[in-house]
Amino acid sequence: MKYRRLGKTEFRVSEISLGTWQVGGKWGEDFSHERADEILNTAVDAGINFIDTADVYGGGESEKAVGRLVRNRSEQIYVATKCGRQLSPHVNDSYKPDALRKFVESSLKNMNLERLDLIQLHCPPTEVYYRPEIFEMFDRLRDEGKIDHMGVSVEKVEEALKAIEYPNVSTVQIIFNMFRQRPAELFFGEASRRDVGIIVRVPLASGLLTGKFDEQSTFDKGDHRNFNRNGDAFDKGETFSGIDYQTGVEAVRELKEVFPAYENLAPVALRWILDFNEVSCIIPGASRPAQVISNLHAKEIPMLSSAQLTAVQDIYERRIRNQVHHLW
Description:
Elements: E1 3-5, E2 12-14, E3 18-19, H1 33-45, E4 50-52, H2 61-72, E5 78-83, H3 97-111, E6 116-122, H4 132-143, E7 147-153, H5 157-163, E8 169-175, H6 187-193, E9 197-201, H7 224-227, H8 245-258, H9 266-274, E10 281-282, H10 289-296, H11 306-324
Parallel strand pairs: 3-4, 4-5, 5-6, 6-7, 7-8, 8-9, 9-10
Antiparallel strand pairs: 1-2
C-alpha cells in the first residue's frame, strides 16, 4: 500500500481507502454487522488506514461498526465521519451551529470515541458555504478536543472552491472519475495551493466503471441506482455520476476496447484517478470483502499510457461532457 499526505491534516493515508455507505451489505438490505466487520478488517489487513463514514449510513450502524474496528485494532486508523444530512428538511435554514454540534457529539457517542480525526459537512445546500458562523463552530469543537480537523463533502466544484476559502477546511471530498472530470480543471490546483487534502468519492460512478452492467442489468427496489436516476431522492449527480444510464453503458463498452486485458475495469478506473498527484485518497465502497481486494488491484497497475489517457479523454468529450460537465 502507498500512502499520501492528506493536506494540512498531515495524516499519511492509504491512497486507496474505504467508504462505508454500503459496508453493512448491498443497497437496500438490512445492515449486517457481521459483514461490516469482515469488510472493515479485510481493509485494515490490506493496509487501508482511512475509513470514511457518516451518521446517516445505515441509520448510525456504520459509525458503530467503524468505532468498534478502531477500538479492536492496534493499527493507526484515521476515522472520518460526516454531519448535516439528518436535518429535515435538508435546507439552508435548517443548518444551525447548535444542531451540528449535537450531531458531532452523537457521532462520538455512536463510535465510542473521544475525538474525531475528521468531521465533514455532508453535502449541505450551496447557501451554507456562505455562512461563516457554520464553519466557525468547528473551531470551537476543535478547541474542546472533540475533533481534530474539519472538511466538507460537496456536490459541485463551485462549493468546493468556496469551502476552501475558510482556513479551517482541511479536506474536500468530491466526486471525480472518468465520467466526472471537471474538478481537475481548476479545483485541484486551488486545493493544492491551499494545502487542502482531496478525498475522491464515487470513483466508479456507482459501479458503472466496473464494466459489469449492461442494458439488461437490474437493481433492487431499495437501490439508489433504481430510484434516484432522475434525482428524486437526492442529487442526481450521486447516481451514475449524473449521466444517462444507457449513455454510461455505451461509454463503458468503448472503455473496454481501450483496456481489453481487464475484464473488471474497476482497478483501471481507480488507477486513472491515482495518476492525479493532487488526489490524497480514493474511498470506493464495498458490500463484501472481495470488492475491497478487487479495488486494491489498482495499486498494481502501472500509470496509464498517453495513448490510453487520450482514448479515455476522447470518450469523455464525445459521450459524457455535454451531460455533466457544466452541472457539477
